[in-house]
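FORM 12-B: Structure-to-Sequence Request
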């Protein structure tokens, strides 16, 4: 199904028509086939699957800043679903093909001056991305090779393990408060599960963007490595995780994440309505417009 048709279907039903994102049967190990590499790509996400290792790399390629637009989110979910259903794939590394940027977070233009229907469609796609990634049966490793504010940080937090390039110019964090907006409860829950309540509380209130060393110190990322070693390190970490039996790891992951996933699943439509009423406020629209202007001025 083409991305726009799929987006419409997601807007109508609230889920991708490809199957449920959570509560799947455990994955089976891949059959011992000869070594093979496959790649598939749509406009914004490139996927390379190394069948012999059982590992895919998903590269975000939506310049200039890999913002999470409706199209991006739809393509992301399609790619993830394909891998989830592929017995040859047991793990996925998420990284960026755009230099210096992992992802700039939700596409602000999707949240400015649009219709209620558009906000609902967009927010369902954001929810879908998170539900699918957080509940994935695959091992998920974020190789954070650039700045990663807000929704970009959420993607990294949603993975099982985070490795960041130790470039002092890269920052990561849930900076929503700086935009005059509020991270929804499931962003907050995911953050708390990674860094703990105290750190999450102050970081969220201040809308902090943490430098790579600071992010490592507070546990937001698990490791820092020189940029040129990021890919190899992500591959090595993936191998360590895949050395364990899938079923034990998957059931443990489900046990750790179920409460947080269930909370959104139970309140999904309410969360969409909250988003619409919040984002439609004139004061919030004004804050977002000013923020976009600030980004543009920074350039000139
Ligand atoms: C109790 C009640 C609670 C109710 C709550 C209910 C619901 C919750 C409501 C809302 C929740 C929303 C959650 C939002 C999450 C988000 O992710 S918001 C997005 C936050 N992102 C950012 O703040 C990042 C902004 N961007 C930057 O800081 C920089 O662009 C950069 C990523 C560091 C890259 O810098 P640089 O390389 O210098 O590139 P430029 O700044 O020049 O940018 C290039 C062009 O890209 C445009 N752009 C950048 N980011 C975005 C974005 N996120 N969306 C759309 N567009 C973006 C930028 O404007 C430039 O455009 P032009 O070339 O000037 O046209």
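FORM 12-B RESPONSE
SEQUENCE OUT:
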């Amino acid at each position: 199904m083409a991305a726009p048709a799929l987006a419409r279907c997601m807007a109508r039903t609230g889920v991708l028509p490809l199957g449920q994102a959570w509560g799947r049967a455990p994955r089976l190990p891949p059959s011992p086939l000869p070594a093979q590499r496959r790649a598939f790509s749509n406009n914004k996400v490139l996927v390379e699957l190394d069948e012999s290792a059982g590992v895919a790399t998903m590269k975000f390629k939506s310049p200039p800043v890999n913002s999470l637009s409706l199209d991006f989110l739809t393509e992301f979910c399609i790619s993830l679903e394909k891998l989830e259903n592929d017995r040859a794939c047991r793990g996925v590394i998420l990284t960026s093909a755009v230099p210096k940027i992992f992802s700039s977070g939700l596409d602000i233009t999707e949240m400015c001056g649009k219709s209620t229907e558009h906000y609902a469609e967009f927010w369902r796609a954001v929810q879908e991305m998170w539900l699918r990634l957080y509940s994935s049966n695959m091992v998920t490793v974020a190789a954070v090779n650039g700045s990663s504010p807000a929704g970009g940080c959420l993607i990294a937090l949603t993975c099982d393990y985070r490795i960041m390039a130790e470039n002092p110019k890269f920052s990561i964090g849930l900076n929503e408060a700086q935009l005059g907006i509020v991270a929804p409860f499931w962003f907050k829950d995911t953050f708390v599960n990674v860094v703990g309540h105290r750190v999450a509380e102050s970081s969220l209130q201040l809308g902090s963007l943490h430098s790579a060393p600071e992010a490592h110190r507070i546990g937001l990322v698990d490791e820092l490595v020189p940029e040129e070693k990021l890919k190899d390190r992500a591959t090595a970490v993936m191998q360590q995780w895949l050395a364990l039996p899938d079923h034990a790891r998957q059931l443990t992951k489900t046990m750790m994440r179920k409460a947080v996933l269930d909370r959104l699943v139970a309140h999904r439509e309410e969360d969409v309505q909250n988003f619409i009423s919040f984002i439609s406020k004139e004061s919030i629209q004004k804050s977002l417009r000013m923020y976009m202007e600030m980004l543009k001025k920074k350039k000139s």
